[in-house]
Amino acid sequence: MSYTLKELADKIGASVHGDDTCLINSIATLLNAKAGQIAFLSNVKYRQQLSETKASAVIITEDCLADCHTNALVMANPYMGYALLAQLLDTTPRTANNVHPSAVVDASAIIGANVSIGANAVIESGVELAEGVSIGAGCFIGKQAKIGKQTSLWANVSIYHRVEIGENCLIQANTVIGSDGFGYANHQGNWLKIPQLGSVIVGNNVEIGASTTIDRGALDDTIIHDGVILDNQIQIAHNVVIGENTAMAACSVIAGSTVIGKNCTIAGMVGINGHITVADGCVFTGFAMVTKNITESGVYSSGLPVQSNKEWQKTNARIRKLESTNKKIKALEKEISLLKGESSS
């Protein structure tokens, strides 16, 4: 489907510079765009491409107009404009269409209007799928699970028993929600399994990436609040609570019974210890290790940036000598203190 620039401008709150009847059918990068496509500039490092692009239009800020030789949609935040147009021009298919004959749906399941269930999906007893839910091929929805309106699951997602998922959520392929938390008691060297009796509650407008795992609670529930976005290959342990609109990037992990505040940003490969609390509005940069309560919002980092192997070996050698170096410093401080005492007398 094509839109005029005027139509697009109205939808994203931009102003048109150039031909407002120009037709746009898709989005591309500045470098690779062709006629009929729209591009955007949100990072100044790509500004030189603005004068070379073959896009029919670009989304830019006012101060970039001088470098623009084509039609433009001008707005304060071009990246937001790109996001809104990507939603409008999205060609991603539904995760399923209608109810496939090979799907296994228990007779007691409550299936709302316009629900789609893909091939070989299994819907167990007592499940409730609200209006417009889309279940991809090969999914498993366990007993008494509930899924809210317009939520979509891609292929091979597993939702365990009694899990509750809100409205307008998107769950990518191979994700597991409601698996057992890592609960064991040690008795004389043997591990005794503790059944995980809680569940997982996922709020509205939550997005969960591919191959992410969210464990059910041991007694209380694991809770993912409204607006949370989780990337691929994330581990959320039992009884974790994640506050509204927090974002978490790939391969990060949260250990059990930790509470993460609202509007936090957790970069990739971050490890967060169990039984701690993180305040609202915290940002953790990549590879950060969070081992204690964080009581104030702010940016937190740990870990060492990459070095050449030769530099790292030197750094590591110095680290191994820290204890002896510390003892020498304390001895010197003591000598200096004694000398100062003698001079003053």
TrEMBL record:
Keyword Lipid metabolism: yes
MF term (GO), any: UDP-3-O-[(3R)-3-hydroxyacyl]-glucosamine N-acyltransferase activity
Keyword terms of this UniProt record: Acyltransferase, Lipid A biosynthesis, Lipid biosynthesis, Lipid metabolism, Repeat, Transferase
PROSITE patterns per record: HEXAPEP_TRANSFERASES
CDD domains, A to Z: LbH_LpxD
Pathway annotation: Bacterial outer membrane biogenesis; LPS lipid A biosynthesis
Catalytic reaction(s) noted: a UDP-3-O-[(3R)-3-hydroxyacyl]-alpha-D-glucosamine + a (3R)-hydroxyacyl-[ACP] = a UDP-2-N,3-O-bis[(3R)-3-hydroxyacyl]-alpha-D-glucosamine + holo-[ACP] + H(+)
Stretches assigned to the UDP-3-O-[3-hydroxymyristoyl] glucosamine N-acyltransferase non-repeat region domain: 23-88
Active site, UniProt feature: 238
Superkingdom of source: Bacteria
Main enzyme class: transferase
Recorded family membership: Belongs to the transferase hexapeptide repeat family. LpxD subfamily.
Function, in words: Catalyzes the N-acylation of UDP-3-O-acylglucosamine using 3-hydroxyacyl-ACP as the acyl donor. Is involved in the biosynthesis of lipid A, a phosphorylated glycolipid that anchors the lipopolysaccharide to the outer membrane of the cell.
Assembly with partners or alone: Homotrimer.
Protein name (database record): UDP-3-O-acylglucosamine N-acyltransferase
Name of the encoding gene: lpxD
